[in-house]
Amino acid sequence: MLALLVSVDAHECRPGPALQRAPSLKIGVSPTELARPFDLRRIVRELIKARPRVLVDFEDDSGQTPFQARLASLQRNPDIEDVDARQDRKREIQRNKLIDKDEILSYMREYIGTFSRADAVKALYKVGGERVHEFDLSGLPRPIIDPDYLKGLQKVLWFEGLLKYVALPRLVFEADEGQGVMESNADGSAGQGQGNKILTVYASHLQLAEGSRCQLGLEGDRHRRRGAISFDQVIEECLNGLNVRIWNWFKADLCSDVILKSAKNARDLTLYSPGNNAVLKGWSSPEGLAKLEGLERVHIRVQEGLESPKRLEANVTAFKDALGKLRPDVKCTWEPHRPDSNYNAVFTNRNGENQPQVRPIPSVSKWAKAMGDFAEFLGSARPDPSVRPIKIAVIDDGIDMTLAHFANKIQVGESFYSLTGEMSGRRGAYFVPSGPHGTLMAKAICSVCPKVMFYIAQLEILPGPHGQRSFTAESAIEAIKWAVVQGVDIISMGWSINTSVKIPALHEALQAVEHARIIMFCASIDEGAKASDNAYPARASTSCMKIGACTVDGDKLSWVSEENSKFLLPGDAPISAAGDKDQWSPHRHLLAGSSVATARAAGLAAALLYCDRLIGAPRAKIFLPQSTNFTFQMGPGRGIRNHKEVDLLRSNDKITETFSGLSSGSNHKFPQLWQHLPDIQNLEWDSRAHPTDTNETKPTLDAFMRHLRTLRVGGGEELVQSSSTA
């Protein structure tokens, strides 16, 4: 079966003797038909319908699913990694065209679109090569949006050629500077000239990127205030050229002509009605929804209160009967829909009330200058391509990936935020952050080590007392597992869960982190020096380093428990979003505390790992246990290998020893990097343009890293001298 799915032979092929002798396979094809030349495409479709899990659970010897294997076999160079293909937009467009052209691949992808997100990702992509196949902007923290934000998303997101669904909120677009926001008139129509501006922005938004199509679903907000886009012409123009299959646009009494023009291939409709009998009759007329040839289901959400319950039920029943006579193959359902479940709540602000703590920015310190010089040197380095950036998982509230700081620095992301209400059963989008925290954490890491590649995991938020926010343990467990499977070098979590309840699943996930030798940092709880600290994740694993905040001079901040903090790093020098277009608020955000210190610790660890890669330091060969249950739920191709090579410095023990060595002379908890760094202001690392200068720099950097190794003890690993530092 797997061979048939992957086969790239011509349209016709003959079954082998064993298959000819086989009894009926119960897939809609008789043995007589199998004995003749048959259409491979039809057989594949029947096989998939009979055993859909084959697309997810079956893998070849190289760990490729049927979709991945067939795509690789059709590409000119089957050795090209899927993750590398994403780095070239032209190659990405060619990939999408290849899939569209091949009927089997195209059918596979469309069928996979009906799976859950986790299964669809596993079936379609190799680890690290994931693309966006659900474009959901619900949950943007404020209703006013800069068009440049949408354009920025188009530049940095890698879209699958076929999107499972697109969910668009009611947004107010900021016009050019000095023009304010685009607003509509009181009757819901746009002001003169404004409609075209809104249309242009949203049409660009929906078209997403060249080579991508929304072929499975579309959802939109029906509100018509302040430049929202619910009027019919805009809907038709926006959807022109898209192949929408699932329709759920939150607009009452939508004319069926709009759907016929905008989504002629729709198979699933969710419509909104106040019970208006004239509109219902229009929907069920021969010129209405019955003309949609591929229609399979119509679901009507009827607003209560405008008609008596008896008349409402009679009108809907008449609609179902009339449509049923014209299209008995279409399933019709309906349910009451109360106005108090406002459509506006579907696309709601998930941000908590608590704003980041603002503190004055202190003058430049020894620590800040040393780290600034170090980061500048690393950022200017131009090494051989084999020297790869450090992979860091930021497990937080998402990221605004349109900011210039993150250009070419975000590999992939996933959201573990479960949506509720109208969007129940779906997850959010990691590129639609629920607040500024995760974005500022990533920025803090970049400020210490620019040579990073981010893996973003968005957590589910729980509102707390006094406007504070926390995260659900379930989403944290999923995010940690995901980071392990992605093969990151460092996990940075600028938060903790303070609870007396034991969470066994979190213990298991953290054990996998330790076995994979991933460096892990989390934040101190910042609830006072004497506060009881039962916080996860550090509570579940001694190898997870809890970081507390101190001043730039190393003095512990008053709300931090030094006893419960493994190390102290500056957290009173806030991270600012100033200078960037801020998607959360017109005011600049400043963030201070142990979460900032945690991000800086992750950045420092990444900088040291990258130095080891620059000088080609020996690597350690580690063996991973096969007993981690969740590893193999995603299949051997996406799980952890039983052995791998990692940076010698890549372990919590060795980073702990290194940080402790750098901290000697203080309270042994504040790394004083400036006391150990060489004079790097005049050093240069450019392997291609300036190889002579690079050869002169290498001994200096090598001596620095050898010095750090003398600050720590340990060993016993099998070393591997390798030029590859992927």
Written description of the protein model:
Helix 16 (309-326) links the parallel strand 10 and strand 11. The strands form 8 sheets. The chain has a 7-stranded parallel beta sheet with strand order 3-5-7-8-9-10-11, covered by helices on one side. Strands 13-14-12-17-19-21-22 form a 7-stranded parallel beta sheet, with helices on both faces. A 3-stranded antiparallel beta sheet has the order 26-25-27. The radius of gyration is 28 Å and the shape is globular. Helix 19 (473-486) packs parallel to helix 20 (504-515). The protein has 23 helices and 27 strands. With 726 residues, it is α/β, with parallel strands linked by helices. The two termini are 35 Å apart. Among the domains are: 2-115, no CATH class; 366-720, 3-Layer(aba) Sandwich (Rossmann fold). It holds the Pfam family Peptidase_S8. InterPro entries: Peptidase_S8/S53_dom (IPR000209), Peptidase_S8/S53_dom_sf (IPR036852). This is Peptidase S8/S53 domain-containing protein. GO terms for molecular function: serine-type endopeptidase activity.
Largest sheet: 7 strands, parallel
Overall mean pLDDT score? 76
Q: What's the number of helices?
A: 23
CATH class of the domain at 366-720: Alpha Beta
Give me the secondary-structure category.
alpha/beta
Organism: Magnaporthiopsis poae (strain ATCC 64411 / 73-15)
Pfam family, one: Peptidase_S8
Protein name: Peptidase S8/S53 domain-containing protein
Domain Peptidase S8/S53: 390-609
